[in-house]
Amino acid sequence: MLGVLQGFALILGIIGAGYLAARFRVVEGEQRRVLNNVAFYVATPALLFSVLSRSDPSVILSPVILITSAAALIVAAAFIVASRLWFRRDLAGTTLGATCAGYVNSNNLGLPVALYILGDAAYVAPLLLVQLVVFAPAILAILETTRGNQRGAVVALGRAAANPVILGSVAGFLVALLALPVPELLLAPVDMLGGAAIPMVLLSFGMSLRGQRALQRGTGRAAVFVATGLKIFAMPLVAWLLALAFGLPSHEVFVATTIAALPTAQNVYNYAATYRRAETMVRDTVFLTTFTSLPVIALISVLLGQT
Q1: Can you tell me the distance from the alpha carbon of 199 to that of 189, in angstroms, rounded to the nearest whole number?
Q2: Average pLDDT over residues 226-245
Q3: Maximum Cα–Cα distance for the chain, whole Å?
Q4: Residue 104: φ, ψ to 5°
Q5: What's the pLDDT tens digit per position in 139-166?
Q6: Which residues cross the membrane (predicted)?
Q7: Pick from 197, 283, 195, 199: nearest CA to 14
Q8: Nearest CA to 225 among 273, 292, 272, 271?
């Protein structure tokens, strides 16, 4: 559990630094978007290429990942239904809300959870692969359609395919799939750029908290609470039930349930900020799930006898 606490402390520390930078006017107004843009178009593609080029593509079909991916799709569908029946978000808001419900922080929180609680950091790598190669292109394609492109979804899909996040992910996946060697001379600067991605996203996230309190009236709190409830409570429950139904061994049941309880990834906020859609809702959901996931993960560990 110490490693998980360290992971949370790391995230909250960088978010706090971003808040203080905005509080003392080191960065003002829309200047924080520069961080988002650099993270989205430069650093994040580099990070994804680095991670995926070193991954094992065959693990994408592991039972745990199939269970957690299915749970993500189920809770995302539940958010879409709630949006239609209750608070009626637009297409971008519904897409991002559904993403908040199922897209987990498999990197800067998932890694310490996997290493210190699950016993192996490799548990989260396949989910990272699925989210980047399967989920992210679909999310970005839908967001592209909300930019008012009159030539239709096919053009929007083409633009999404040319997105640097997708290009970096696909390039890294192909390098791993084909076992292509990448010279260290080329990989070293990519690794260095990738290392800046998460800090920039977290700093920008912290800056966005300045001047507007979380969960204010009129900011779509119903959507935030639904997305948070689905992410932190419903998704682990669904993963647990699916794992039991498919007869997974007890440790794999524990792994799938724990991974499903991870908070919403900060990448979702980066998508929202870049496309300027539902930023407040996504920011508040990321913030809320980050704080509430720790006791839930601890409870899962106790209930499933893995402490």
Answers
A1: 17
A2: 96
A3: 55
A4: -90, 155
A5: 888 887 777 654 545 665 666 667 787 7
A6: 6-22, 34-53, 59-82, 94-117, 123-143, 155-180, 192-210, 222-247, 253-273, 285-304
A7: 199
A8: 292
> Any idea which residue has 């908040």 for tokens?
100
Q: What are phi and psi of 264, to 5 degrees?
A: -65, 140
Q: Which of 80, 125, 81 is nearest to 99 (CA)?
A: 80
Q: Show the CA angle centred on residue 18, arms to residues 14 and 19, nearest 5°.
A: 115
How far is 267 from 111, CA to CA, in rounded Å?
A: 15
Q: Say what the pTM is.
A: 0.74
Phi, psi torsion values for 272, nearest 5 degrees: -60, -45
Residue ranges in 54-210 assigned as alpha helix (H): 63-82, 91-102, 110-113, 125-130, 136-145, 153-161, 164-178, 184-194, 197-208
**Placement of tokens 């508040």 in the chain:** 284
- Rounded distance, CA 99 to CA 73, Å? 9
Cα 281 to Cα 218: distance, rounded to the nearest angstrom: 11
Q: For residues 50 and 59, what is the distance between their CA atoms, to the nearest angstrom?
A: 17
